[in-house]
Design goal:
The complex is a heterodimer of chains A (about 280) and B (about 260). Chain A has about 280 residues and is of the alpha/beta class. Helix content of chain A is about 35%, strand content about 20%. Chain A has 11 helices and 10 strands. In chain A, the strands form 2 sheets. In chain A, strands 6-7-8-3-9-10 form a 6-stranded mixed sheet, with helices on both faces. In chain A, strands 2-1-4-5 form a 4-stranded antiparallel sheet, covered by helices on one side. With about 260 residues, chain B is an all-alpha fold. Chain B has one domain. Chain B is built from 11 helices and no strands. Chain B is flat and about 65 Å long. The chains are: A alpha/beta (about 280), B mainly alpha (about 260). Chains A and B meet through helix 3, helix 4 and helix 5 of A and helix 8 and helix 10 of B. Bound molecules: adenosine-5'-diphosphate and magnesium ion. Adenosine-5'-diphosphate binds next to helix 1 of chain A.
């Protein structure tokens, strides 16, 4: 569905490439978690997926990116927006209208969809994310978490095959962050492909079926989150495993490879090795 | 005695919907334009009194009676001063009264329009009047970012002050110079926000098609038709009132 083939990208004006020889394939229905230190190249990788690179960011790009078999260089960001939706880190900088329903309508109006279709899609996404009560609210009055949910809703309304999120919780409080993780988990269960770059591994690792670690513009680890967090030493690349993993190590229940607190408790109660990988 | 907040009370945002705010924005614009034009038809006192009276239905529909009353009360002293000053230069009490009433009348008309029309409606209105999308969109986005940038300013000031920076110090020039450590981060933040906004717009296919559709549509209800007819009547009567000769001598430079 998404295919990055041996891509190296250097931003105009910088000496080092932000990504080097990256290859990655993302299948339909996956929940891919991308971890890595700040500046490791996570955002750059995500910008490749919807064509912001090379269309919006100037630089030197080698290799190619295929979305549904279409080379991103041959399609516009607008065309790609129907396939890959991108949600950014700061909700304030991606909300462009003054009312929630208008915000969700915005992308659809840009695509020129008929009004009935727009109304239907607004109903649908508001319901899906459980934020029907926000419909007529002013976007300026929303909390950070609500703003991010609205940003996600406005991207989902465009019905992309893949929703890509760049550190969606980094500006949010723990409660809202957990809510975003839960919403994404539900969407994924309903069949939406999710790609998310995040630092909050404790929230997102339990939802993901695959995880990659990026360091200095290269993919240095790839596998199931349980596998990566329990076997490899990812802290070498600056990624700190969630505290559940540390506790599991401390109490000797590593075999069960718990990622969520619930799993840890079950593992501790049983006190036996359950290998789930 | 002086109550500056009371004077601007009339411009305070109306909470909740009123019969007026629910009108088609185009109707509101036409009414607004009519009531700005009406007092300008002639300078006679009669004309100004008629303009004021004719606005009564709008004041009621927009539930602004109390705000109008409070503002007038708070501005009474100011109004008297204006009339007196005007009289001292023109030596015509009637003319002075007329000019001040004209001002009041136009302020009421603007206040009703501004407090009963949301910025988003004004954006839609501009689009409908075939103003290019880039311009109407800039207008809406500017309003959208005012609270965001205001928060940024507060944050910058707080962090500079908490590091011991003194804003209010020295002469006027010194004070201006002291704004620089507030302005520089502000500009950097605004540029960064602008860049990310452009990225988000790109992702949402902004400007991708010529045939942009509209989610919000306004229809014309009974109230709209009634008020449009009312506007026509008022302007017609106004034009008739305007043909009556003023009761006072106009000063040669006035008109
Ligand atoms: N617009 C840009 N122009 C130039 N260099 C950039 C730009 N964006 C990111 N970079 C550089 O590319 C590298 C990777 O950055 P980024 O993809 O933003 O990492 P992350 O999202 O993991 O923090 C960094 O060295 C960063 O300085
Ligand atoms: Mg980033």
């Amino acid at each position: 569905m998404l295919k990055i083939e041996d891509v190296t990208f250097r931003y105009e004006g910088s000496k080092r490439p932000a990504l080097s020889e990256v290859s990655l394939e993302i299948d339909r229905g996956e929940f891919l978690l991308i971890a890595g230190l700040s500046g490791s190249g996570k955002s750059t990788l995500l910008r490749l997926l919807n064509g912001l690179i090379p269309h919006f960011y100037r630089g030197e790009m080698k290799g190619k990116v295929l979305v549904d078999g279409v080379d991103t260089r041959e399609a516009s960001v607008a065309q790609l927006s129907k396939k890959v939706g991108l949600v950014f880190q700061n909700p304030d900088n991606q909300i462009v209208t003054l009312r929630v329903d208008r915000e969700i309508a915005f992308g659809l109006e840009n695509l020129g969809l008929p009004r009935d279709e727009i109304v239907g899609r607004i109903d649908e996404v508001l319901k899906k994310l459980g934020i029907e009560h926000l419909r007529k609210r002013s976007t300026a009055e929303l909390s950070g978490g609500e703003k991010q949910l609205v940003a996600i809703a406005s991207v989902l309304a465009m019905k992309p095959d893949v929703i890509v999120l760049d550190e969606p919780t980094s500006e949010l409080d723990p409660f809202s962050s957990a809510r975003i993780a839960k919403v994404l988990g539900n969407l994924n269960r309903e069949g939406v492909t999710v790609v998310v770059a995040e630092h909050r591994l404790d929230l997102f690792a339990p939802k993901a079926n695959r995880m990659i670690v990026i360091s200095n513009g290269r993919i240095v680890r790839e596998g199931h989150p349980r596998e990566l967090l329990y076997r490899g030493d990812i802290s070498l690349h600056g990624v700190r495993p969630p505290s559940v993993v540390k506790l599991a190590r401390k109490y000797g229940v590593v075999g069960a490879q718990p990622l969520a607190v619930g799993e840890l408790i079950v593992a501790l109660r049983r006190g036996v090795r359950i290998d789930r990988s | 005695m002086l109550d500056p907040m009371g004077m601007v009370e009339i411009f305070r945002t109306q909470v909740g919907e009123t019969s007026y705010s629910k009108l088609n924005p185009l109707t509101k614009l036409i009414l607004f334009a009519s009531f700005i034009a009406l007092p300008l038809i002639s300078a006679s006192l009669l004309m100004q009194i008629f303009s004021l009276m004719a606005q009564t239905p709008l004041i009621i529909l927009s539930r602004s009676e109390r705000r109008v009353k409070r503002s007038l009360k708070a501005s009474l002293l100011f109004i008297v001063v204006l009339v007196v000053l005007n009289y001292l230069t023109t030596h015509s009490l009637e003319f002075s009264l007329a000019m001040v009433l004209r001002l009041v009348s136009m302020i009421i008309a603007s206040a009703i329009f501004m407090t009963g029309t949301s910025p988003a409606e004004i954006g839609d209105l501009l689009t409908k009047l075939k103003v290019p999308l880039q311009i109407t969109f800039s207008f809406v986005i500017a309003l959208r970012f005012i609270p965001v940038l205001a928060d940024d300013v507060v944050m910058i000031i707080t962090s500079q002050v908490s590091r011991g920076y003194e804003l209010e110090r020295g002469s006027f020039l010194e004070k201006v110079r002291r704004l620089i450590p507030i302005l520089i981060p502000m500009i950097i933040i605004a540029i960064r926000r602008g860049h990310q906004l452009a990225e988000a717009l790109e992702t949402k296919a902004f400007g991708a098609t010529e045939k942009r559709s509209n989610y919000v549509v306004y229809d014309y209800g009974r109230g709209d038709w009634i008020l449009l007819v009312y506007a026509i009547i008022v302007i017609t009567v106004g034009l008739m009132v305007g043909t009556l000769t003023p009761q006072f001598q106009l000063l040669p430079f006035q008109y």
